[in-house]
């Protein structure tokens, strides 16, 4: 149920490097077929990843969640134990790694703007929650969804009524929406709205970085797209499945 086409490349590279005779495959699953797919995987003692739009739905179907997945209300990695579906969220660790690098470790007291209110946004907020004194503002076009997510992470997270309000004074601006998947998509946040010293983190995966990331870097902002998070969350997922770390260098070498 992994919809990101790059994942099979680096997960299969990790499997080969570890000498594990398995193949990681991407499967597109619509909402109507999710239950049947989970039952098939249960019968096969299957494990894997989950991406948009199934992270919250799979979390609701797990017999057991790790504390982190429970906190997020979203699952991006799963496996079976004694026939029970178990879910975890390694998006948190992936997001934390990239954000720490963008802020050069200066996360204490950071102000984070999160654009989006889905499972990926929850993973970002769960990472920010661990930074001493940090605050976050959540903006989403569907305000009830933004409010529900901010309430989950209150009091350090609050709702912003507009993008301008969300990014005002931010030290890190995160795009956790699909905006920017295509080069001709509008920017999730116009460059002129970005605070002068804000870092930019786009969770969207693009082979040559997203146009927003490239433009923000050209404008002087420390910027990164979702590839680093993708590899790191995948490496952490590998550890959950096999009980040992993968060869991260092999995973990065498989990236186009």
N-to-C series of helices and strands: HHEHEHEEHEHEHEHEEHEHH
- Per DSSP, the total helix count is 11
In whole angstroms, how far apart are the ends? 21 Å
Q: In the CATH hierarchy, what is the architecture of the largest domain at level 2?
A: 3-Layer(aba) Sandwich
Query: Can you give the helix content as a percent range?
Result: 25-40%
Query: How many structural domains are formed by the residues?
Result: 2
Structural shape:
globular
CA-based gyration radius: 18 Å
Give the rounded overall mean pLDDT: 93
Instruction: Tell me the strand percentage band.
Output: 5-15%
List the SSEs and their pairings.
Blueprint: H1 7-18, H2 34-43, E1 48-49, H3 55-61, E2 64-65, H4 67-72, E3 77-81, E4 84-88, H5 91-102, E5 111-115, H6 119-128, E6 135-139, H7 143-152, E7 157-159, H8 163-167, E8 172-175, E9 199-202, H9 211-218, E10 223-224, H10 227-242, H11 248-253
Parallel strand pairs: 2-4, 5-6, 5-8, 6-7, 8-9, 9-10
Antiparallel strand pairs: 1-3, 3-4
Helix pairs in contact: 1-10, 5-6, 5-10
Overview of the molecule:
The chain has eleven helices and ten strands. With 256 residues, the chain is an alpha/beta fold. Helices cover 40% and strands 14% of the residues. Strand 5 (111-115), helix 6 (119-128) and strand 6 (135-139) form a beta-alpha-beta unit. The model has no long low-confidence stretch (mean pLDDT 93). The protein has two domains: 7-89 and 229-253, Leucine Dehydrogenase, chain A, domain 1 (Rossmann fold); 92-225, Rossmann fold (3-Layer(aba) Sandwich), CATH 3.40.50.720. The relative contact order is 0.15. Helix 1 crosses helix 10, helix 5 packs across helix 6 and helix 5 packs across helix 10.
């Amino acid at each position: 149920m992994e919809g990101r086409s790059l994942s099979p490349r680096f997960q299969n590279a990790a499997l080969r490097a570890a000498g594990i005779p398995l193949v990681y495959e991407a499967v597109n699953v619509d909402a109507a077929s999710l239950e049947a797919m989970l039952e098939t995987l249960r019968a096969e003692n299957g494990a894997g990843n989950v991406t948009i739009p199934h992270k919250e739905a799979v979390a609701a179907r797990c017999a057991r969640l790790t504390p982190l997945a429970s906190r997020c209300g979203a699952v991006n990695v799963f496996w079976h134990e004694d026939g029970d579906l178990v879910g975890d969220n390694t998006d948190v660790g992936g997001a934390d790694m990239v954000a720490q690098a963008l802020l050069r470790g200066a996360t204490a007291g950071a102000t984070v703007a999160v654009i989006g209110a889905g499972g990926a946004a929850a993973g970002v907020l769960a990472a920010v929650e661990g930074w001493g004194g940090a605050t976050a503002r959540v903006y989403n076009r569907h305000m009830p969804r933004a409010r529900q997510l901010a309430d989950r992470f209150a009091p350090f997270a609050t709702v912003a009524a507009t993008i301008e309000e969300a990014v005002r004074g931010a030290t890190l601006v995160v795009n956790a929406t699909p905006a920017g998947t295509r080069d001709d998509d509008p920017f999730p946040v116009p460059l002129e709205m970005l605070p002068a010293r804000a870092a930019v983190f786009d969770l969207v995966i693009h082979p040559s970085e997203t146009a927003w990331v490239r433009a923000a870097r050209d404008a002087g902002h420390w910027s990164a797209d979702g590839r680093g998070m993708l590899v790191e969350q995948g490496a952490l997922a590998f550890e959950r499945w096999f009980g040992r770390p993968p060869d991260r260098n092999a995973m990065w070498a498989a990236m186009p």
